[in-house]
Predict the structure.
Amino acid sequence: MTWLRVDLRGYLLGDILAVSLTDLLGLWWGMLVLVLWFCSGVRFLPFP
C-alpha cells in the first residue's frame, strides 16, 4: 500500500502544481483584462 500512497501523493501533488500554474496564468490574464476594462470604462461608467 505504500507504493500506492506515494504514487497517489505524487499524482495529487503534480495535479495541484499543474492546476495552480494554469490558475495563476488565468488569474493574471483575468486581472490584466479587468484592469484594462476598468481603466477604459471608468470614464464612461458612473461610479459613486
Q: What stands out?
A: Residues 12-37 form one domain.
